[in-house]
Amino acid sequence: MTPLDPALLDAALTLVRELTTDRAGPAEARQRLAALRERWPGADPAIVRDEEAADGSVAFDLLLREPAGTVSVAYSPTPALPWPLRGAIRHSDHHLARIGTRTLRVGEALTALDFLWYDHDVLARLVDTGLIATELEQHPVEVDDAELQSAADAYRRAKGLLDAASTARWLTERGLSAEDFADLIAHTVAVTRLRGRVVGDRLPGWFAAHRSAFDTLVIAWTAEGTLPTERAAALSAVADAVRAGRAAGTLRTVAVAAPPELRDAGGPVPTTIAGTTVTAAVVDREPAVLDEGTRALVERAMFDEWLAQRRADTDIEWFWLPRDRTTRVR
């Protein structure tokens, strides 16, 4: 086993003392950790921040990795609770929210939302949130003020928050502070940067290997009767249905977004469009071109593939979920 550099241990202790004394926020802590990561990349320094509910104090724990394990360097100024005691179970750990005079416990909430624990997409999204946070903590990305401001403006426009009053109301309704909003925007930008880092220069080759998944499909559908198997005849049948006043139409969509049963179907198949059961068929297929819109879809698909591999390689345990369901989120 190779021992950690004593200079690293000294620097780690100095850093956690400064962060704790300054009550640094998560973003500032990651920024100040960068110097250690750059000088000792083999130790893979990572920071953990904890705010104690009992006394409001903030403490930091710096994790340093070596071949045989992990070294923890922590500092808690008097009279704050020492780091080991912060791991003790508190009564409030079982509470999720107070509704009037009634405290809603985590177990009750999960029972009420039991359907979520059978939804693979929901569980995967929760796991992905943790994986992304870990990656950004271990390998931070740099974001400048101009980029943050641009992202904040775009986010507000997308939500219809076009003035200070509507923005303040939106934050209040969600129990968010201005600092929370800033963190949300910073995280959104950081994830975008992370996605770009994951994709790198692999996009053209990956797109070439998966081009058909991004073809544009022209789907003809009718709610009555069946469609002919030939494309021209199917389109004609849809046109006749429209003229007759029956529910019918066409839909243009990217192959990856089309109903799975339609993507490779050789003829008309039953499916659901806009919540209605219909008979539909792919009547035309336009080869994908790597334009700006397609590039964005490809980047997301590549990032999803990366996350799926991370889920497969990570041990996951749900503290409020039966163990037999833990391994299903892959």
Gist of the model:
By secondary structure, the chain is an alpha+beta fold. The chain is built from eleven helices and nine strands.
What topology does this entry show?
Layout: H1 6-22, H2 26-39, E1 46-51, E2 58-66, E3 69-75, E4 95-99, E5 102-105, H3 106-112, H4 120-138, H5 145-158, H6 164-173, H7 178-199, H8 203-209, E6 216-222, H9 231-243, E7 248-254, H10 260-263, E8 269-273, E9 276-286, H11 292-313
Antiparallel strand pairs: 1-2, 2-3, 4-5, 6-7, 6-9, 8-9
Helix pairs in contact: 1-2, 4-11, 5-7, 7-11
- Number of H- or I-type helical stretches: 11
Largest sheet: 4 strands, antiparallel
Structural class call reads alpha+beta
Ends apart, CA distance between termini? 33 Å
Total strand segments: 9
Describe the structure.
There is one protein chain. The two termini are 33 Å apart. 45% of the residues lie in helices and 18% in strands. The protein is elongated. The protein has 11 helices and 9 strands. The strands form 3 sheets. Strands 7-6-9-8 form a 4-stranded antiparallel β-sheet. It has 330 residues and is α+β, with helices and mostly antiparallel strands. The model has no long low-confidence stretch (mean pLDDT 81).
